[in-house]
Amino acid sequence: MDTERGRDLEKTPSSAHTVPSPQQSPRRSPGPPPEGGLRAWLALCSGATVMALSFGMVNSFGVYQSYYENKYPHMSSNTLSIIGSLQGCLTFATALPSTVGMYYLGPQAMVGAGGLICILSYMFLSITTAPWQLFVVQGLMFGLGSGLMYVHCAGVVFQYFHRRKAIASGLITSGASMAGVYWPIGVRGLINKVGFAWGNRIIGFLYIPMVAFATTNLRPRVPPPPRKPGQNVLRVNFRVLLNWRFQVLNVSFAVAILGLFPGLFYVDLFCQRLGVARPIQDYNVAIVNAATLLGRVSCGYVGDKLGRFNVMIPTLVLSGVLSLALWIPARSSAAALAFCITWGFATGPFVSLAPAILGQLFADELPSYLGVFFPTASVGVLVGPIIAGTFIPPGHVDTVEGFDKLSVFVGVLFLAAAASLSALRLVYQRRLLAKM
């Protein structure tokens, strides 16, 4: 029975068409997803832009981490990492209130409000004068604005795509990867050329047209439905938390996230303390995110053909193995570069495939599933870099002491996530070569 259910969810597009999505009206069906068209592609581009504005900047925090390590040598690495951890944590955690707000105001209003908060965050960051202000302005304020935008990428775009759901998800999340290439280069270059204050003001000004484009074009196919009789005021079905299959996917994603962000936040500091070649020091964060872009788009395409579980699980295993087998012995520029490229490619797919798998398995009540899925992952984003930071000595250090422990921490978590997802796949489909 479970095998047939998994096969039907994968192959039968009507399962996604007959169930109201976050913005569909229960009173009339908008028909099957068009799988393309001008509005669909504009919505997808807007979703990618939102990803660039939210997680694209969060993924680039490694540049700020290194800058703060040098500016505030008296503060520990794990304390400084809380700034970036707050950004990622709140981006996920705000998914639930943002989903509720979407029902009453629409996704475009939530994207516009979140974008405005992010713009103000960078404007205020330019006038900070004390470390505690960074936690409030860059961590708390940006995280809230980012979270108001983030969840609507998949929610709106999945209304336009079903058969191409994985590749659409890959293209959306590629916005974060592309931003992870140009934001680190831009942030580092601006700080070096015009200083910290004006560098962040310029970033705030760059956000304005990007937010305007995303707000204008992330249009749902139909407006949010009216509240049903007897439905709670939040319009969230919390009974989805009782679905143990969903909880396995939910916790597995959170465990993988727990291992992802320590690598993203500390790879720049690792390259600096290792003393790698200057170009690698300057562009390692961009290199990791560029490789992530390739992984997300290519594996999203392959996932639609071969099965999303079949692609996600091997890449999680590869992410863990690379952390243990390549990062630990990396003591040269060539080895550090090889790790940045291969690990970036391997870690990209699971972020883009997870929402597609969620829509594949739990098309009914998808807004409720999304609303509680991302807040669970927020715990991993918050505590992962903080735990990893305890391994690393603070201040001006010319060795990579502690990074071997960090790499083991990252590798084991990815392997654990792969193991739990493998078990979940066997529940739905026992044939190893079957599409799932």
TrEMBL record:
Residues 1-11 have a biased composition (Basic and acidic residues). Residues 1-35 are annotated as: Disordered. It holds the Pfam family MFS_1. It is found in: Membrane. The chain crosses the membrane at residues 38-62, 82-105, 112-134, 140-161, 166-185, 197-218, 248-267, 309-328, 334-357, 369-388, 408-428. Keywords: Membrane, Transmembrane, Transmembrane helix. Residues 240-436 form the Major facilitator superfamily (MFS) profile domain. It is a multi-pass membrane protein. Its main location: membrane. The keyword Membrane applies. Belongs to the major facilitator superfamily. Monocarboxylate porter (TC 2.A.1.13) family. This is Major facilitator superfamily (MFS) profile domain-containing protein. It comes from Ogataea haglerorum.
